[in-house]
Amino acid sequence: MSTALETVGFFLGAISWLITGAALANDYWKISTVSGSVIISNRQYENLWHSCAEDSTGVATAETFESLLALPGYIQACRALMICIKIGSAGDETKAKMAVGGGVALPPGRSICAIVTASWYAARVVNDFYNPLYGITRFELGAGLYMCWAGGCLALLGGAMLFAPAREPHLEPKAPSPHTAPRAPVMVPTAHSG
């Protein structure tokens, strides 16, 4: 059972890495909304790296954010959290320790960073959407955020599956505890003929 859990945990971790990487490259972290608009001539969308606009003919232009320091603090922090995501034959004991280490490192390394990034970015989009003093263009949550949340959740689940086998009791013989008094042999009387 533990090998199956470790294998599923590994594959969930790999899939989450792919989904989170795709979310990082996805252009649609926030998309301009159409609510309240009479005529829509273009659509705007952004991610952590650039801002794009697409006109009614489907021609898109993108502008890369030029200065890191000119960006709002939450985008700088989201970039830092997403860049922290890293790609992560011995005896059975070493393999078990590596699986536990992977199970402990996977959630903070990938899932927590991805979930915090997507949630923070989404909170800012929602806050700006309902802010009456925000500019003319209002933005909604884009597919990139949902991909980021999905990747983070899969990494969390995969990490839990890698960590779970270490918590299972092993069926190895136990050594006597040094705090337990040794048992005296039981003497059974025997009959002697004589």
From TrEMBL:
<dbReference type="Pfam" id="PF00822">
    <property type="entry name" value="PMP22_Claudin"/>
</dbReference>
<dbReference type="GO" id="GO:0005886">
    <property type="term" value="C:plasma membrane"/>
</dbReference>
<comment type="similarity">
    <text>Belongs to the claudin family.</text>
</comment>
<dbReference type="InterPro" id="IPR006187">
    <property type="entry name" value="Claudin"/>
</dbReference>
<keyword id="KW-0812">Transmembrane</keyword>
<dbReference type="InterPro" id="IPR004031">
    <property type="entry name" value="PMP22/EMP/MP20/Claudin"/>
</dbReference>
<feature type="transmembrane region" description="Helical">
    <location>
        <begin position="143"/>
        <end position="164"/>
    </location>
</feature>
<dbReference type="GO" id="GO:0005198">
    <property type="term" value="F:structural molecule activity"/>
</dbReference>
<keyword id="KW-1133">Transmembrane helix</keyword>
<keyword id="KW-0472">Membrane</keyword>
<dbReference type="GO" id="GO:0005923">
    <property type="term" value="C:bicellular tight junction"/>
</dbReference>
<keyword id="KW-0965">Cell junction</keyword>
<protein>
    <recommendedName>
        <fullName>Claudin</fullName>
    </recommendedName>
</protein>
<feature type="region of interest" description="Disordered">
    <location>
        <begin position="172"/>
        <end position="194"/>
    </location>
</feature>
<keyword id="KW-0796">Tight junction</keyword>
<keyword id="KW-1003">Cell membrane</keyword>
